[in-house]
Write a structure and sequence with these properties.
With 177 residues, the protein is of the alpha/beta class. It has a single domain, classed as 3-Layer(aba) Sandwich (Glutaredoxin). It has a 7-stranded mixed beta sheet with strand order 2-1-5-4-3-6-7. It is globular.
Protein backbone atom coordinates (compact mmCIF):
# COMPACT_ATOMS: atom_id res chain seq x y z
CA UNK A 1 0.00 0.00 0.00
CA UNK A 2 2.76 2.43 0.98
CA UNK A 3 4.63 1.80 -2.29
CA UNK A 4 1.40 2.34 -4.21
CA UNK A 5 0.84 5.73 -2.55
CA UNK A 6 4.48 6.71 -3.11
CA UNK A 7 4.19 5.73 -6.78
CA UNK A 8 0.98 7.73 -7.20
CA UNK A 9 2.51 10.78 -5.51
CA UNK A 10 5.59 10.41 -7.68
CA UNK A 11 3.49 10.21 -10.85
CA UNK A 12 1.45 13.21 -9.73
CA UNK A 13 4.65 15.19 -9.16
CA UNK A 14 5.92 14.24 -12.62
CA UNK A 15 2.57 15.25 -14.18
CA UNK A 16 2.62 18.60 -12.38
CA UNK A 17 6.22 19.20 -13.42
CA UNK A 18 5.34 18.46 -17.04
CA UNK A 19 2.31 20.73 -16.89
CA UNK A 20 4.45 23.45 -15.31
CA UNK A 21 7.12 23.04 -18.00
CA UNK A 22 4.46 23.35 -20.67
CA UNK A 23 3.10 26.48 -19.01
CA UNK A 24 6.53 28.09 -19.25
CA UNK A 25 6.21 27.78 -23.01
CA UNK A 26 2.57 28.88 -23.18
CA UNK A 27 2.15 31.84 -25.46
CA UNK A 28 5.57 31.55 -27.11
CA UNK A 29 5.44 32.08 -30.84
CA UNK A 30 6.77 29.26 -33.01
CA UNK A 31 9.21 29.56 -35.89
CA UNK A 32 7.28 30.47 -39.01
CA UNK A 33 4.64 32.50 -37.10
CA UNK A 34 4.31 36.19 -37.82
CA UNK A 35 5.54 38.68 -35.23
CA UNK A 36 2.50 40.64 -34.02
CA UNK A 37 2.31 44.32 -34.94
CA UNK A 38 3.75 46.61 -32.27
CA UNK A 39 4.49 50.28 -31.62
CA UNK A 40 6.70 51.04 -28.63
CA UNK A 41 8.73 54.01 -27.42
CA UNK A 42 12.51 53.74 -27.26
CA UNK A 43 14.79 55.23 -24.62
CA UNK A 44 14.66 58.61 -26.39
CA UNK A 45 10.85 58.62 -26.55
CA UNK A 46 10.78 57.87 -30.30
CA UNK A 47 8.23 55.38 -31.60
CA UNK A 48 9.47 52.13 -33.09
CA UNK A 49 6.99 49.94 -34.91
CA UNK A 50 7.07 46.57 -36.56
CA UNK A 51 6.20 48.43 -39.78
CA UNK A 52 9.52 50.33 -39.46
CA UNK A 53 11.28 46.96 -39.35
CA UNK A 54 9.62 45.51 -42.46
CA UNK A 55 12.34 44.10 -44.73
CA UNK A 56 14.84 43.97 -41.84
CA UNK A 57 15.96 41.04 -39.73
CA UNK A 58 15.84 41.77 -36.01
CA UNK A 59 16.35 40.34 -32.55
CA UNK A 60 13.62 41.27 -30.08
CA UNK A 61 14.94 40.37 -26.63
CA UNK A 62 12.77 40.76 -23.55
CA UNK A 63 14.44 41.40 -20.22
CA UNK A 64 12.93 41.77 -16.74
CA UNK A 65 14.37 45.09 -15.52
CA UNK A 66 16.98 47.61 -16.59
CA UNK A 67 20.22 47.73 -14.63
CA UNK A 68 19.67 44.49 -12.73
CA UNK A 69 22.48 41.90 -12.68
CA UNK A 70 21.14 39.33 -15.19
CA UNK A 71 19.84 41.98 -17.56
CA UNK A 72 23.14 43.84 -17.43
CA UNK A 73 25.06 40.64 -18.23
CA UNK A 74 22.80 39.95 -21.20
CA UNK A 75 22.87 43.56 -22.45
CA UNK A 76 26.66 43.74 -22.24
CA UNK A 77 27.03 40.45 -24.07
CA UNK A 78 24.74 41.65 -26.85
CA UNK A 79 26.70 44.92 -26.90
CA UNK A 80 29.98 43.02 -27.19
CA UNK A 81 28.56 40.97 -30.08
CA UNK A 82 26.74 43.88 -31.69
CA UNK A 83 29.13 44.39 -34.61
CA UNK A 84 28.86 40.69 -35.52
CA UNK A 85 25.07 40.85 -35.38
CA UNK A 86 25.06 44.09 -37.35
CA UNK A 87 27.25 42.50 -40.05
CA UNK A 88 24.71 39.65 -40.19
CA UNK A 89 22.05 42.28 -40.88
CA UNK A 90 20.36 41.94 -37.49
CA UNK A 91 18.84 44.96 -35.75
CA UNK A 92 18.97 44.46 -31.97
CA UNK A 93 16.05 45.73 -29.87
CA UNK A 94 15.59 45.16 -26.15
CA UNK A 95 12.12 45.25 -24.58
CA UNK A 96 11.11 45.64 -20.94
CA UNK A 97 8.31 47.18 -18.90
CA UNK A 98 10.62 49.99 -17.80
CA UNK A 99 9.82 53.59 -18.65
CA UNK A 100 11.92 55.19 -21.42
CA UNK A 101 13.85 57.23 -18.83
CA UNK A 102 15.05 54.04 -17.05
CA UNK A 103 16.05 52.51 -20.36
CA UNK A 104 17.91 55.71 -21.25
CA UNK A 105 19.93 55.40 -18.03
CA UNK A 106 20.64 51.74 -18.83
CA UNK A 107 21.85 52.61 -22.35
CA UNK A 108 24.14 55.33 -20.96
CA UNK A 109 25.47 53.26 -18.05
CA UNK A 110 26.42 50.28 -20.25
CA UNK A 111 27.20 52.10 -23.54
CA UNK A 112 24.57 50.06 -25.35
CA UNK A 113 24.58 50.66 -29.13
CA UNK A 114 20.99 49.44 -29.63
CA UNK A 115 17.56 50.73 -28.77
CA UNK A 116 15.61 49.66 -25.70
CA UNK A 117 11.84 49.69 -26.04
CA UNK A 118 9.24 50.26 -23.32
CA UNK A 119 6.26 47.91 -23.30
CA UNK A 120 4.63 49.65 -20.35
CA UNK A 121 1.14 48.38 -21.16
CA UNK A 122 2.60 44.85 -21.55
CA UNK A 123 0.45 44.13 -24.62
CA UNK A 124 3.32 42.98 -26.81
CA UNK A 125 4.76 40.90 -23.98
CA UNK A 126 1.44 39.10 -23.50
CA UNK A 127 1.05 38.60 -27.27
CA UNK A 128 4.47 36.93 -27.59
CA UNK A 129 4.61 34.98 -24.32
CA UNK A 130 6.94 37.28 -22.37
CA UNK A 131 4.18 37.83 -19.80
CA UNK A 132 1.10 35.90 -18.79
CA UNK A 133 -1.00 39.03 -18.25
CA UNK A 134 -0.86 42.80 -18.33
CA UNK A 135 -0.52 42.63 -14.53
CA UNK A 136 2.93 41.02 -14.74
CA UNK A 137 5.59 42.93 -12.82
CA UNK A 138 8.42 41.97 -15.17
CA UNK A 139 8.90 40.38 -18.56
CA UNK A 140 10.10 36.81 -18.91
CA UNK A 141 13.61 36.51 -20.34
CA UNK A 142 12.80 35.41 -23.90
CA UNK A 143 13.88 36.49 -27.38
CA UNK A 144 12.85 36.18 -31.00
CA UNK A 145 15.00 36.31 -34.08
CA UNK A 146 12.64 37.72 -36.69
CA UNK A 147 13.26 37.47 -40.43
CA UNK A 148 12.96 40.28 -42.95
CA UNK A 149 9.55 38.83 -43.85
CA UNK A 150 8.30 39.45 -40.28
CA UNK A 151 8.20 35.73 -39.46
CA UNK A 152 9.89 34.14 -36.46
CA UNK A 153 13.14 32.41 -37.42
CA UNK A 154 14.03 31.31 -33.91
CA UNK A 155 12.27 31.51 -30.54
CA UNK A 156 14.44 31.52 -27.41
CA UNK A 157 12.60 30.54 -24.23
CA UNK A 158 14.08 30.80 -20.72
CA UNK A 159 17.17 32.61 -21.97
CA UNK A 160 20.44 32.25 -20.07
CA UNK A 161 21.91 35.78 -20.08
CA UNK A 162 25.45 34.38 -19.96
CA UNK A 163 25.22 32.56 -23.30
CA UNK A 164 22.31 34.11 -25.21
CA UNK A 165 24.29 36.49 -27.43
CA UNK A 166 26.53 33.61 -28.52
CA UNK A 167 23.46 31.52 -29.35
CA UNK A 168 22.05 34.28 -31.53
CA UNK A 169 25.37 34.82 -33.32
CA UNK A 170 25.63 31.07 -33.91
CA UNK A 171 22.06 30.88 -35.21
CA UNK A 172 22.66 33.80 -37.56
CA UNK A 173 25.77 32.07 -38.92
CA UNK A 174 24.04 28.69 -39.18
CA UNK A 175 21.17 30.20 -41.14
CA UNK A 176 23.65 31.75 -43.53
CA UNK A 177 21.53 34.88 -43.71
Amino acid sequence: MRNSITLRLGLAAVALALLGAGAAHAGMLSPGASMPHFELRDQEGRMVSSNDLAGKRYLLWFYPKAMTPGCTIEAKSLRDNYSTLEKAGVVVLGVSFDEPASNKQFVAAEALPFRLLSDTDRKLAVAVGAAESTDAKTARRISYLVGADGKIEKAYDNVDPNVHAGQVVSDCSANGK
